[in-house]
Amino acid sequence: MRNFKTHPILGLVNPYIGDSPQPSNIRCCLIIQIITGVTLAMHYTPTSFFFIFVYLHIGRGLYYGLYKSPRTLVWAIGVIILIVIIATAFIGYATVITNLIKFIWGGFSVSNATLNRFLSIHFVLPFIIAALAAIHLLTLHEHGSSNPLGVTGNADRLPIAPYFIFKDLVTIFIFFLVLAIFVMYAPNLIGHSDNYIPANPIQTPASIVPEWYLLPFYAILQSIPNKLLGVIAIFASLLILLAIPVMDMILVSDFVVLMYLGSQHVEQPYIIVVLVPVTSIIENTLIDLNDVGIESSKNII
After folding, report:
1. Of 1.20.810.10, 3.40.50.1820, 2.120.10.30, 2.60.40.10, which CATH number belongs to 47-147+155-195+203-295?
2. Where is the Cytochrome b/b6 C-terminal region profile domain (predicted)?
3. What is the pLDDT of residues 143-183, one digit of tens each?
4. Pick the catalytic residue: 48, 136, 211, 227?
5. CA-to-CA distance for 161 and 167, rounded, in angstroms?
6. Of 187, 183, 77, nearest to 128 (Cα)?
7. Could you say which of 68, 102, 122, 167 is catalytic?
């Protein structure tokens, strides 16, 4: 047991499965959690609010600079989790928007091979996400959080009960309030009316509008005629997050623009949005060259 506590790798697990105190009725609690969790999963799809919290979590990391050393590994594992989540959500769209359809289907139409592949993938991916989340927590506890408030001494710390439990309850109540507003007053606000049109298995729909949390990536896919290259571009747009610890500064406005473009058709004026930053770059370059030319002429005179 001593080696279990002092080992550089096993020591990270010890606070969770070794010295972690558990209630005497832990088995009853686990059974209730499994039954209620599976029952809830049969009746609801919490993807929208799930991705809201995912994006808020990423935004908090960007705002507080949680990707800096020594927490670069924590950030990298988080990016891998995001890639797996997006890949899981995009599996259904990949059957109709890419030229990999025969490879994904296992033939010229949906068959038993297709069902086996999708069952295997959807069965395995949640376990992969859960394992990555556990590794994410382990790497976080190696160096601790970045403590953006600057509280370093133990004298300034508070016990988790009742202070932080009450704070978390306030957050939970706010979440249910926002959820109730969406459910009761604007259930279709973040959806799309085209999704209510019955599907025609013979004809590809004129407009495929994914859920709002996939719109930025769908805009990238729409902008590239070769859909395989579009999927590679989406993958690259997620991998670029791994470069943030090196870049240290990045703007997220393009994420909002891509989200809006993803809900629009490939037509004017949306196809010229790319010209706006290009024009600004050319303009600034010409101004700089002009200033250099004026400065050189002054030196000659």
Report:
1. 1.20.810.10
2. 150-301
3. 777 665 555 666 666 676 777 788 788 888 998 898 889 88
4. 211
5. 10
6. 77
7. 167
